[in-house]
């Protein structure tokens, strides 16, 4: 048995990891993906294996389809409907959590709380002379100044793309590994970068477990050495 209904609600809980799902079929799919080891379905184009036929179908559409989806707002071509959804969400639609002090819109309550803490907290802060934005520490201001100077001191040694922050370079290097380490524990979709998984998880209903912490240091180190080997 995969799980049980939660009394007084229309939700179901996994009997192994306690994940809460809004529908029984979603719970069943989660159970197969996370708690079984039977990979029945194989992609005939790249040999990637899947436990659920629907995941193989989705993989074929997203990975091996040549039909882009075009944004009707700006004309940007996206790989698939989900990529279009994320693009429109962050490029064209404002977040519903509004800061009462400056009017800035954010997509989650957590982001709003952090914004208020760092931007409006009553304490002495360091101000950027270019735009007036304030910071708690001098090193934060130094990193911010790259927005105005255009400085990008961190370069990829494979494709030479440059980044303003070291963490941005590390996440970028994951694209060159060809691996997708960040896996959604509800639907099984995988992502090469953490930001993709964070945006994707927002479309699932119910209480989700904490975002898993992925160890990427060994992959990043290997990719940084790749050009010299």
UniProtKB/TrEMBL annotation:
Chief place of localization: nucleus
Name of the protein: C2H2-type domain-containing protein
Domain C2H2-type: 41-69, 69-97, 97-125, 126-153, 154-181, 182-209
Species for this entry: Bracon brevicornis
SUPFAM superfamilies per the UniProt record, alphabetical: beta-beta-alpha zinc fingers
GO cellular component: nucleus
Localization annotation: Nucleus
Keyword line: Metal-binding, Nucleus, Repeat, Transcription, Transcription regulation, Zinc, Zinc-finger
GO molecular function, one term: DNA-binding transcription factor activity, RNA polymerase II-specific
InterPro entries: Znf-C2H2_ZIC1-5/GLI1-3-like (IPR056436), Znf_C2H2_sf (IPR036236), Znf_C2H2_type (IPR013087)
Membrane-spanning ranges: none
